[in-house]
Amino acid sequence: xxxxxxxxxxxxxxxxxxxxxxxxxVESTGAEVRDAESGEAALETLRGWSxxxxxxxxxxxxxxGMELLRETRRMHPxxxxxxxxxxxxxxxxxxxxRQGAANFIxxxxxxxxxxxEVQRNGDEALVAEQIRGMxxxxxxxxxxxxxxxxxxxxxDLVDQVAPTSMPVLIRGESGTGxxxxxxxxHDRGKNADRSFLAVNSAALPDTLLESELFGHVKGAFTGAExxxxxxxxxxxxxxxxxxxxxxxxxxxxxxxxxxxxxxxVIPLGTTAQKPVDFRLVAATNRSLRKKIAAGEFREDLYYxxxxxxxxxxxxxxxxxxxxxxxxxxxxxxxxxxxLDQGNCPGFSSGALAELTGHKWPGNVRELENCIQxxxxxxxxxxxxxxxxxxxxxxxxxxxxxAEGVNYEQGKQEAxxxxxxxxxxxxxxxxxxxxxxxxxxxxxxxxxFQRIMRDLELTRDQFQ
Length: 463
Prior knowledge:
The chain is an alpha/beta fold. The protein contains 19 helices and 14 strands. The protein has three domains: 8-135, 3-Layer(aba) Sandwich (Rossmann fold), CATH 3.40.50; 149-313, P-loop containing nucleotide triphosphate hydrolases (Rossmann fold), CATH 3.40.50.300; 316-462, Helicase, Ruva Protein, domain 3, CATH 1.10.8.60. Helix 2 (39-46) runs parallel beside helix 3, helix 17 (407-429) packs across helix 18 (434-441) and helix 18 packs across helix 19 (445-454). This is Sigma-54-dependent Fis family transcriptional regulator.
């Protein structure tokens, strides 16, 4: 990290000496440093300031480091969080990484260890920020590639609806980038300086979803040791993005409708109404009209949500975006395999033909994963068609036998491909039902989930 890099770091620890020491250490790198003596103070800082990196203790009074990690990921998904603890266990470290932590450090640590984390995460965060700024097809739209007329029409509609406060319903297949469009609406709106808070409606049962959105008071249920403000209240005039709203239970749909009508919430454990101010953007990859006909979605809620509807075309229907997107991901992930932007490999004519000829059933997410894999297999050289692994008639080796890959590398790659294909097919067959997929494979649910985490698969990709 160069001395001129404007890296922003937030240090969070309730021990004054430790916090001051970390601040001085990080400041020695030339970074802008702010500190917070608690998780609550850190969240307050994050409402008006977005760092690149956060160093946080795990064990703190009030909001813990793990809770702070989750809240930070919701408020600022691009912030890298490194957790520090004196009570490190493998289970805690695994959970921290699963929740999105960049790393997990145990005490006692030495200064070099901290400086290494700042250096590594700082470099990656600054490069990622720079690429996001360059990759947008339009000013103010980071990470959205829109060379194709079909996607340009989507951004035209975003421009029209963003300055209003109307609810928006975004429809599109899994992997098309619905959350990116939701963020673009927020970033171009009149309250862009307020929070953008995202929730996957399908990921939580009703009770937890109600607590997440409406909040709860202390003692509202077992484990509710502190009062917690819900997302609707925390939005503070910002945007709440509800993904996969089509999978929300009909019982909870009624509660959401009341909030939209009355602009108040009733936190769990109380009868007192609390006024809220937020803009709602919802998304679905399913036909809500079909769900209405089947009695699975409330028609009155549907009309509340779809004041403006934005349909994101699947990648197969926006062919002009395929190569620009592939190039964007190539630059984005080149550093992960030890390449800088100046040494980024290109695509052979055969690879370009493969990219443009593929139907991309997994949309942009599938393309992103494909480019990451190709970078690893090409080992920094020009990416060939065989590196993409898109052909169905190449057998299990995907061309590795002709590329000089040694036996151990080939074995590991073949095993990874087998695991990926096997698990993906099971999840596709069960439409993302992890329990049923595990049974089909003869695995326990826990073992199946471990493999999913290793392969970075989520059930949402197959629903």
